[in-house]
């Protein structure tokens, strides 16, 4: 593929595919409201454009990690409900109220600060209550359930939603899922009539028992694999092509890249691409003679990355292309129809989430394609 505009890499984001993914998940979760997680710059694809496309598809509930992300969504969309998963930042209650952001309150200190502001202004500002059912991460501890309930009963305050987060939903048969489901049910018994949310993308796909009144898909919206061991049903959203800068000939026994960690076992033809770990192409995608690394596709054929990935450059063995030699300026596919997000993640020993969110680092021309602005079907 030749690069068609600008210099450097080309990151293409298909807003139509993003919208279709949300609609597909909304059908699966029929009976529950389908939110959209847009934290980490919408998993690297761009929070403003993603939020607008998801809104056009029908999403009205958005989940961000930080207040700054909430402000970005609010600037783009005035009529949506925004939950801040990191909770209430100390001293920031006025900002949340002014911008109509709902903190996912996860500690007694957060709760007291939020209630104090509600009392001061004589208004029950909305929030979610986040309970930890087995992550040992953010969330009220299970031993605090009664204290939380007693604290709000005296004030007549009720959260908009009670939520928790699954630790092992990407493994549907993991016993932890059923344990957390039971513990979450015990929490909900203390908050009758309050909407509940437990399922992320994988939980949504695991079964209706996890859906409750709201589901919170994230990775699946952006085309990543949510459930291990299953075929990924989601449409890919991103493609990334980076320029070939030079093609060189190298001889048997010569080393490649920093540290001389890879030595050639044959006379080889190498393509040097303008993409390195400063662009989010993880150093863990490097290879040695003992360990394969990442791959790219050039002229539709998969070619291995060899040697260590540098800050700005990577080296690709294109010997198998034979006489079909690419020219400088042609594009190498890092993500796309041949090399998927999860293909790179598997090679790097990580998950698609990290591959996608690393796109925020890439020094590339970002292009939005597809019609993500159609009204809901």
From TrEMBL:
Alphabetized Pfam families for the sequence: Ala_racemase_C, Ala_racemase_N
E.C. no: 5.1.1.1
Catalyzed reactions: L-alanine = D-alanine
Active-site residues annotated for this sequence: 39 (proton acceptor), 258 (proton acceptor)
Positions with a binding annotation for substrate: 137, 311
Record-linked InterPro entries: Ala_racemase, Ala_racemase/Decarboxylase_C, Ala_racemase_C, Ala_racemase_N, PLP-binding_barrel
Domain Alanine racemase C-terminal: 237-369
Gene3D superfamilies according to UniProt: Alanine racemase (3.20.20.10), Lyase, Ornithine Decarboxylase, Chain A, domain 1 (2.40.37.10)
Sample GO molecular function, one term: alanine racemase activity
Pathway recorded for this protein: Amino-acid biosynthesis; D-alanine biosynthesis; D-alanine from L-alanine: step 1/1
Function: Catalyzes the interconversion of L-alanine and D-alanine. May also act on other amino acids.
Family: Belongs to the alanine racemase family.
PANTHER family: ALANINE RACEMASE (PTHR30511), ALANINE RACEMASE, CATABOLIC-RELATED (PTHR30511:SF0)
Name of the molecule in the record: Alanine racemase
Lineage per the UniProt record: Bacteria, Pseudomonadati, Pseudomonadota, Alphaproteobacteria, Hyphomicrobiales
């Amino acid at each position: 593929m030749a690069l068609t505009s600008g210099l450097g890499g080309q990151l293409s984001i298909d807003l139509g595919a993003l919208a279709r993914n949300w609609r597909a998940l909304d059908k699966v979760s029929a009976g529950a409201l389908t939110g959209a997680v847009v934290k980490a710059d919408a998993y690297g694809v761009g929070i403003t454009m993603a939020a607008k496309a998801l809104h056009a598809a029908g999403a009205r509930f958005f989940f961000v990690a930080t207040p700054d992300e909430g402000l970005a969504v609010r600037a783009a969309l005035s009529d949506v409900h925004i939950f801040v998963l990191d909770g209430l930042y100390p001293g920031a209650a006025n900002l949340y109220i002014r911008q109509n952001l709902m903190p996912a309150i996860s500690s007694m200190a957060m709760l007291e600060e939020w209630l104090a502001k509600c009392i001061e202004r004589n208004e029950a500002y909305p929030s979610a209550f986040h309970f930890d059912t087995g992550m040992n991460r953010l969330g009220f501890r299970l031993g605090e359930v009664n204290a939380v309930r007693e604290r709000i009963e005296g004030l007549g305050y009720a959260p908009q939603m009670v939520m928790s987060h699954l630790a092992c939903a990407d493994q549907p048969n993991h016993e932890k899922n059923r344990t957390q489901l039971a513990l979450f049910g015990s929490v909900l018994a203390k908050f009758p009539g309050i909407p509940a949310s437990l399922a992320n993308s994988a939980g949504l796909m695991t079964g209706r028992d996890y859906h409750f009144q709201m589901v919170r898909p994230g990775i699946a919206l952006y085309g990543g694999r949510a459930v291990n061991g299953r075929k990924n049903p989601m449409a890919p959203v991103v493609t990334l092509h980076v320029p070939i800068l030079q093609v060189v000939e190298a001889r048997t026994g010569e080393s490649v890249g920093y540290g001389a960690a890879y030595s050639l076992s044959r006379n080889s033809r190498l393509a040097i691409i303008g993409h390195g770990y400063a662009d989010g192409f993880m150093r863990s995608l490097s290879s040695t003679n003992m360990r394969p690394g990442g791959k790219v596709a050039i002229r539709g054929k998969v070619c291995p990355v060899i040697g260590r990935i540098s800050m700005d450059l990577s080296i690709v063995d294109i010997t198998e292309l034979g006489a079909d030699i690419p020219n400088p300026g042609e594009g190498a596919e890092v993500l796309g129809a041949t090399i998927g997000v999860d293909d790179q993640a598997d090679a790097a020993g990580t998950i698609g989430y990290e591959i996608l969110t690393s796109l925020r680092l890439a020094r590339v021309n970002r292009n939005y394609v597809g019609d993500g602005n159609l009204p809901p079907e």
